[in-house]
Specification:
By secondary structure, this protein is of the alpha+beta class. It has two domains: about 110 residues, Alpha-Beta Plaits (2-Layer Sandwich); about 45 residues, no CATH class. The chain contains five helices and seven strands. Strands 1, 2, 5, 6 and 7 form a five-stranded antiparallel beta sheet that branches. A two-stranded antiparallel ribbon has the order 3-4. The longest helix is centred in the N-terminal third of the chain and has 16 residues. It starts with a strand and ends with a helix. The model has no long low-confidence stretch (mean pLDDT about 80).
Length: about 160
């Protein structure tokens, strides 16, 4: 089973004047903490709502300090359950984001993406085209192509770097 896990992070930022500035600094701060180890984690601005249901900016600023709500999304593969996926995501992200509160807000099962676009393998999708192209060739032409490929695979035939320069 594979899952997409979304984790909310409350990122503190300092010396900011506007909400946009706080959001940019928050995304940059999280990006630095996650990269290069977790460069596959997507960083998005979070959503906040007031008790009345009114949509709010993802950043709150008071006294030139802010708190930014960010959503960190990652895919977790080969897991046993949704709970297992949330634990793996929290652990992976949490190890790199020390002192930043995290909360899992969504776990969604995803289809396996190892095959072609609509569940077809590469051979199912493109195999007929290649078979037709090779079907027009005679046996001796196929053997000649095979010999050329074998020649390309030999490392001895490649020139040395010093010879090229």
């Amino acid at each position: 089973m594979n899952c997409r896990v979304v984790v909310e992070a409350a990122v503190p930022v300092y010396d900011v004047e506007t909400e946009d500035e706080a959001i940019r600094i928050g995304i940059s701060k999280i990006g630095e903490m996650l990269n290069p180890d977790l460069n596959y984690v997507e960083i998005n601005t979070g959503t906040r709502t007031s008790p009345n249901g009114e949509e709010l900016e993802p950043a709150f600023i008071a006294a030139d300090e802010g708190l930014v709500a960010l959503e960190l999304e990652m895919k977790v593969f080969n897991i046993e359950s949704k709970e297992h996926a949330s634990r793996v995501a929290r652990k992976e992200i949490g190890q790199r984001l020390s002192d930043i509160p995290l909360s899992v807000i969504d776990v969604e099962e995803i289809e396996e993406e190892m095959e072609g676009s609509e569940g077809e393998s590469f051979e199912d999708e493109y195999g007929d085209e290649f078979d037709e192209d090779l079907g027009d060739l005679e046996d001796d032409e196929l053997e000649e192509i095979g010999a050329e490929v074998e020649d390309l695979e030999d490392d001895e035939d490649l020139p040395e770097l010093d010879d090229i320069l």
